[in-house]
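TL;DR need structure tokens for one chain.
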Amino acid sequence: MAKLNKRKCIHCKTVFQKQQPLQSACSYKCAIAHAKELEEKKKQREWMKRKKQLRFETMTHKDYLKLLQIAFNTFIRHRDERKGCVSCGTSLLGKKFDAGHYRSVGSSPHLRVDENNCHGQCVHCNRDQHGNLIEYRKRLIKRIGIQEVERIENYQSDLKLSIPEIQELTKHYRKESKLLIDKRKLIENE
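>> reply
TL;DR here they are.
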């Protein structure tokens, strides 16, 4: 019976004999110290919440584009992980690889989130060979067809996405990535 009345102090972790049914600290000193810790943690959480809110309030158009690019590239990596590199054909499964754009984001920002303009590409082709564009084009024609490749090559626009549009696209690609992950997990479990 005495064993049931023993408990570890929530502050100093020493074992003590309970005097009250709901007693969780060995002394008033430990109870007050624990209450102060809880109050400090609460203030810390509130500050982190406020800090996050301030960060989003002060974000620029460029910051939102960075978030969109991360979400889009993640989606492309999940979409193309079972396909080979678009330029050289090497397997990407289990390797680090990039979401390589056929027409670069710098020269064609309007094609930043065009799913036919971006494909899984091994690091060697994308970074070391600057996109390996000749091979990229050959394999891209096999993947999406000559009409679509020519559309990408000829498409010019001054389109600039607004912040609400960028936020919507970011949500969309995060959702699509999650669906692809869930689908892959489902297939692996079968």
